[in-house]
Amino acid sequence: MVTLILNVDRDDDFGRKAGIRGPIIGKDKNLEAAIRLVLADPEDSDANALFSAISLYDKLKNENKDVEIATITGDEEVGLKSDEKINEQLRDVQNKIKIDDVILISDGEEDEYIIPIINSYAPVKHVHRVIVKQSRNLESTYYIIIRALKEKDLLRKILVPIGLVFLAYSIAVYFIMGIRTYFPIFIIIDPNTFAISFVFLTLGLYLILKGYSAGTRLKNFYSRMRVAFGEAKISISFDLISIIMSIFGLFYEIEVTYNITNLFERALYVIQNMILFVMISGIIKEIGGHVENYIHNNKLNPYFWTGILMLSGVSFIIYGFMDYLMIMFNIINKKYDDFSIFIIFLGFLIAILTSISRRLLYRESAGDELQ
User: Using one digit for the tens of pLDDT, what is the confidence trace for 2-50?
Assistant: First the structure.
């Protein structure tokens, strides 16, 4: 049972600073790489992480554990491009070493983003985090600021929020001043109070989007779109139709409910009627994916119907719940809520039966393959 001690250099410091390409397999090669990197940049944390990995390798070897060590490198453009290179190098390591599990050496949070990629080859049983100690003199405020200004990633993390605060405050103040010029009635609004509120709103949105890696997701989405258009994938047409259907449904429902003055009632009507458009959009997208699969693999996925039925079941549940809610608030003039309960029950039934039937079919197909 081979345990791989895996050191990850996601932004390719080994390649950029020491001219070393990954994957680096074996203790001797990794020790040489660590020495070359620490000579090129004595302050680089990746060198310290690799020395820590080698130390752990020696310790486990002395305990008669079956271990191997490897370093994989990504790309300076951290994100989709670097993760694709890491995936390729992991495949190379897997071809050369039969890995049973992995100990990941991490010197930062970014390295741990690739755990799902590693898990696709072998389970990560432990993450060994390396924290570099510094002397008190080096921990001075001046040194920290100078180091921060040299690190591009850290610079973005510090300067972007500060820049957003100044930008949001300035935009809000000028906006209120402009409104006051043309609409004197708004003199009751204090520009500073509005600006501070706008700053908190902007920072809140930024932190939420940052927390969900919105920038990386958009970048990955753009890359996938470029690849899809380049390969002339038919699924992209279905995706576009799906998006257009949802947008059309939203505007259509807003227009239809224009005469409803109560905003709460209008919102409930729009959400309830939008469920149908969203369901149809989801079904179109699902069909597109299966058509694409059929064109490339010349066979239809036997479970293509499960996604469609599950989506339909969930849509029925939400629609029934919204209908019941509108009856409860006397928005819809219905004496009985039997229809709402029936729709919710039907949705649950479809979802449960779909899930059970898919599991049974999967077990049957797995049994046939074993025979």
Answer: 899 999 888 888 888 888 888 899 999 999 999 998 888 887 778 888 8
**Which tokens belong to 229?**
């258009």
Centre a 10 Å sphere on the Cβ of residue 204 and count the other Cβ atoms it contains. 10
Whole-number Cα distances in Å, 103 to 4, 25, 65, 133 = 6, 15, 13, 22
Break the chain into its structural domains and give their ranges.
3-129, 149-214, 216-370
**Which tens digit of pLDDT belongs to each residue from 111-155?**
667 888 888 888 888 888 876 655 445 444 545 555 555 556 666
How far apart are the C-alpha atoms of 268 and 324, rounded to whole Å?
11
What is the value of pTM for the model shown? 0.44
**Tokens 């779109």 identify what position?**
225
- CB hemisphere CA count around 245 (13 angstroms): 17
Q: Which two tokens stand for residue 203?
A: 């920072």
Angle between helix axes 27-40 and 45-62 (nearest 10 degrees) is 150
Cα–Cα distance for residue pair 221/239, rounded to 1 Å: 12
Q: What is the C-alpha separation between 180 and 187, in angstroms, rounded?
A: 6
* Cα–Cα nearest to 351, from 322, 319, 321, 308: 308
Residues β-bridged to residue 303: none
Residue 317 one-letter amino acid: I
How far is residue 75's CA from residue 199's CA, in Å, rounded to a whole number?
35
In whole angstroms, what is the distance from residue 177 CA to residue 29 CA?
A: 65
